[in-house]
Amino acid sequence: MKILLTGGAGYIGSHTYLALMGSGHVPVIFDDFSNSSPKVLERLERISGQAVVCERGSVADSALVQGLMKRHAIEAVVHFAGFKAVGESVAQPLKYFDNNLVGMTRLLQAMDATACRTLVFSSSATVYGDPASVPITESFPRSHTNPYGHTKLVIEDMLSALQKSDPAWKVAVLRYFNPVGAHPSGLIGEDPRGIPNNLMPFVAQVAVGKRPVLNVFGNDYPTPDGTGVRDYIHVQDLAQGHVAALQTLAAKGESFTVNLGTGQGYSVLDVVRAFEQASGRQVPVQFASRREGDVAQCYASTERASELLGWRAQLGLDAMCSDSWRWQSANPDGYA
Ligand code: UD1
Predict the structure, then answer these.
(1) What atom of ligand 1 comes closest to residue 221's alpha carbon?
(2) Considering only CA atoms, which residue is closest to atom 26 of ligand 1?
(3) Nearest atom (ligand 1) to Cα of 148
């Protein structure tokens, strides 16, 4: 299938690009490079041994998107392009409404106009808010605590209205848990701008000596060691989840919403210990107060993913840490 990857030069997009190629699909990257580097394209060519097809621009530019969808005879879209920093979304909500909501609307209009109505959308476990219990199934109630999370929830609702209006739409909503790790080549990985918001890139930067200490946000949660528990999933497994979602949409012809996680929760201190083991470096920590909006525990029920997609995460915390470390130690400044 010819597949357009919006945000295809980003962290999850670039790994999914390789997974799709490996499964015989023809991915086309579409990116405005607002939160990614064009250098990723050379890396993808080195890994795959094939020229990358990439178009530059914004998903909000409907005319541009329609043109390239026709030119490349696009059959399905995987929509990664979206902003995802929680704190920034609180400070600048309009930036999030514009890029995430207006961008999604314009992209859907361009898809409709070119009669391409197969979409895989990057949603997030953030739509579960503070879950009443774990593991979290897809039927748990949804809520939001910040504008970023709100955009994911609104887009999920937009997509379900669209499917009701026209059954030709085939939409897979993938609720990612905590993507971490990197391609085993060490050539591509997560390259956050500025101070990382997320745990794994922060730990990696402490291990490589770029930052002195990890602040552990809260050690008084009702969890085994008092620190927050999350469902970390290797980005390579996540990438395969997209391949499985596209195959399922094509085979069953029905829309669905599914969690992509491992079903296993690890605490902040578990991650620190595993990273020290994988890197052979010390990761000094200090306890700090809880971060606003954080929940104690969040991990997925993986039943639906395994039944519907025939997909299960294969890689454990050790592989997540050693692949993150390979990327971080070989590229201390990311793609810069
Ligand atoms: C965060 C977002 C979530 C978003 C996801 C992907 C929040 C509240 N949630 O998920 O909406 O979908 O990223 O971008 O921001 N931690 C530390 N020290 C750090 C960083 C993190 O102790 O420097 C802890 C956190 O308190 C948490 C765990 O590590 O317990 C994971 O944090 P993080 O990687 O930011 O992911 P989430 O908060 O789960």
Answers:
(1) 30
(2) 217
(3) 11
Q: Whose CA is nearest to atom 16 of ligand 1?
A: 199
What band does 243 get if pLDDT is binned at 50, 70 and 90? very high
Q: Is 93 exposed, middle or buried, given 0-12, 13-18 or 19+ CB atoms closer than 10 A? A: middle
Report the SS3 class of residue 75.
Answer: coil
**How far, in Å, are 124, 154, 200 from residue 143 at the CA level?**
12, 10, 25
The answer for residues whose C-beta is within 8 angstroms of residue 255's C-beta and 6 or more apart is 159, 163, 169, 170, 171, 172, 173, 249
Q: How many residues does the chain have?
A: 336
Whether 215 lines ligand 1, by a CB cut-off of 6 Å, is yes
Active site residues: 148
Q: What is the DSSP string of 195-256?
A: S--SHHHHHHHHHTTSSS-EEEE-S-SSSTTSS-EE-EEEHHHHHHHHHHHHHHHHHH---E
In the chain, what are the domains? 2-180+232-261 (3.40.50.720)
Average pLDDT, the chain: 98
Is the CB of 228 within 6 Å of ligand 1? yes
Contact criterion met (CB below 8 Å) for 128 and 135: no
Ligand 1 within 6 A of CB of 97:
no
149 lines ligand 1 (CB under 6 A): yes
Q: Which residue has the tokens 């971490």?
A: 180
* Average pLDDT estimate for 284-293: 96
Q: What is the pTM of this model?
A: 0.98
Q: Which two tokens stand for residue 302?
A: 């993986």
**pLDDT band, residue 97 (cuts 50/70/90):** very high
Q: What percent of the chain has pLDDT over 70?
A: 100
**HSE of 178 in the Cβ direction (CA atoms, 13 Å)?**
23
* Buried b or exposed e, range 301-322, using 16+ CB within 10 angstroms: bbebbeebbebebebebebbbb
- What residue's CA is closest to ligand 1, atom 19? 199
Here the tokens at position 145 are 């605590």
